Amino acid sequence: MLIRANHERKIEGGGCSWSYVETLEPADTYTITVPRKKGKEAREVTIQLRFEKLTIKSPQYKKLENIDMYALTATEVDGPKEESINWKFLTTIPIHNPEDAKRMIVYYKSRWGIEVFFKILKSRCNIESTQFKFGNRFKACIAVSAIVAWRVMMLTFLGRNIPGLKASIMFESFERKGIYVEFLKLQNHHQIWIRFYSGTLTNVSSA
Hints:
Number of domains: 2
GO molecular function: DNA binding; transposase activity
Distance between the termini: 40 Å
CATH superfamily of the largest domain: Transposase Inhibitor Protein From Tn5, Chain A, domain 1
InterPro entries: RNaseH-like_sf, Tn5p-like, Transposase_11
Structural class: alpha+beta
Largest sheet: 5 strands, antiparallel
Radius of gyration: 24 Å
Strand order of the largest sheet: 1-5-4-3-2
Protein name: Transposase, IS4-like family protein
CATH architecture of the largest domain: Alpha-Beta Complex
Oligomer: single chain
Shape: elongated
């Protein structure tokens, strides 16, 4: 389990979780890429990692046992005040060294890709609006839609990161013909098709 946990937790030995972790020396400092999001470009971020195994005390009004968790913070160095990173995590996965801590950051960052996948599944494949009489048909629809969402996600990624990649590398002839039929429905479809057929996945994405 790996969760964001911004609220302080009382710990064994006195004090609170994040106040204590902040007193520790950084275990490592390194650079990560924060993906772009609406209104903001991707950026390189230098973060400091601190981690410690803590015993978190149960609230007094609940008859629960104390639990051992690993606390991890990732704090941006000299970042812009309005968007500076200050991530706080609790995890049941052991963190014994900086490499373990970095792996937690990788796990957390992968959530962005998962969110994009489900956004495509819902907004482009309209999976939430589908209705079937039998469950097996719905399962088949989800399976096909998941493949479509993955393909769209991959094409968008390639278009942004390898803008010179030819469309013919990713699309078979029959697929390009199908896309052409759809392009005919768009305004300025002749210009769009010329860009697509002679050009790149970037143009497909922008179209």
